[in-house]
Amino acid sequence: MRKANCNIGRAIHNPDLTAPIFNIQSYSIHDGPGIRTTVFEKGCPLRCVWCANPESNFPSPQLMTYSSLCIGCGHCIPSCNANAICMQEQSGKVLSVTNRTRCTTCGACVAVCKRKAREISGKVMCVQEVLNQVERDRMFLESSGGGVTVSGGECLYHPAFTAELLRGAHEKGFHTAVESCGFASRDVVDLVFPHVDLALLDIKVMNAEHHKQYTGVPSDGISNSIIHMMILGADPIAAARALKGCIYHVHGKDARIERLLSDVDGILEPRPVTDSAERVWNYVAVGCGHDLNWWKEFFSVVHMMGYDGDVSLEMEDLTMSTEAGVATSVNVLTQVISR
Ligand code: SF4
Ligand code: SF4
Predict the structure, then answer these.
(1) Which atom of ligand 2 is found nearest the CA of 106?
(2) Top mutation candidate among 77, 80, 96, 97 for ligand 2, by most atoms within 8 Å of CB
């Protein structure tokens, strides 16, 4: 029954990992405390109707064309070995048009276009290259109490790269932050968040139906991550109400914020789960973090919101034996789940 947390604290230690980078912005002042260098990764699983950077959606470099800058000189046509460019009349002007199915994003046409009507959006970079660029801003980041923020696109879309980048930033002594919509699996959260000092979560829409309508993806994956982060102050009972009709699976699992330790250190926890005695919060058997009345209300609300399925027990409490943890959780669950 004990689920191995094989990803927790697992640093990949591979500075050669790559991801498409949309932009690296120095002197950011809205992405966390102090002056920050913000790394925008390219690729996002959501398609929000209000997206201000749709060119950051796709997880690979892309050719961007700007017809308002094109003067129809045709210099780009012979530069393209893929034969992807032709001239077409548009609104009374003859302009270049690109066949996207043929384009290999080689960038040759960008180099010859003097009007800057063509551009490659995104560049594949390795962790070390990004860290080298961040290093140039060190003086500003340190003197302002700032650090590195990883954003997107969606920074959890390339979890191994993001985890390694954040780990490397920590090693260099930088404060780290992520800007994320939270659309990620539990394993991704466990991989990335041990290296995060500050999480800026951008919850798009609480209503599950509207979430799917306006972002293109259901909110259950997002909400699952939020419940996992209940130690950061989210309320699973309120979340269950907001997810009315969209709860497909429920785990019996609990977390306890460790008083005295969290009073000093706050509740962001980079230590591995095996350091139970040092951690400011721990996974615990059901009932050892939240009391029976809390669990009764939780399962009552979950039931009212339309969920009538099984409750899985995920045993991760390292403060007691597996057998004791299972027995404790089963005892509590049988008392709080109405049949
Ligand atoms: S080289 Fe630039 S300006 Fe000339 S046709 Fe091509 S895109 Fe237009
Ligand atoms: S990026 Fe390369 S393949 Fe694509 S249109 Fe330009 S020259 Fe052709």
Answers:
(1) 2
(2) 80
Which atom of ligand 1 is nearest to 87's Cα?
5
CA 264 from chain center: how many Å? Answer: 27
Domain residue spans in the chain? 1-60+122-228, 62-120, 233-339
pLDDT band at 237 (very low <50, low <70, confident <90, very high): confident
What is the chain's Cα-based Rg? Answer: 24
Between the CA of 120 and the centroid of ligand 1 the distance, in Å, is: 14
| Fold classification of 62-120 (topology level) | Alpha-Beta Plaits (3.30.70)
Q: In 10 A of CB 315, how many CB atoms?
A: 22
* Ligand 2 atom closest to Cα of residue 79: 7
Per-residue pLDDT band for 8 (boundaries 50, 70, 90) equals very low
**Helix (H, G, I), strand (E, B), or coil: what is residue 254?**
strand
- Encoded tokens for 21: 């980078």
Residue 124 alpha carbon to ligand 1 centre in Å: 25
Comparing C-alpha atoms, which of 12, 275, 34 is closest to residue 167? 12
Any ligand 1 atom below 6 A from CB of 186: no
Helix 127-135 to helix 159-171 angle, to the nearest 10 degrees? 40
Asked if the domains at 1-60+122-228 and 62-120 fall in one CATH topology, the answer is no
Indicate the class that CATH gives domain 1-60+122-228.
Answer: alpha beta
Question: What is the arithmetic mean of pLDDT over 281-293?
Answer: 89
Q: With bands split at pLDDT 50, 70 and 90, how would you rate the model's confidence at 226?
A: very low
Interval 179-225: pLDDT, tens: 998 888 777 888 898 899 988 877 777 666 777 788 887 766 555 55
The two tokens of residue 120 are 């490659």
Look-up of token digits 């920074």? 155
Please spell the DSSP secondary structure of 85-99, one letter per residue. Answer: EEEEEETTEEEEEE-
What pTM does this model have? 0.63
Q: Tell me, what's the pLDDT at 92?
A: 87
Q: What is the pLDDT of residues 306-315, one digit of tens each?
A: 888 778 777 7
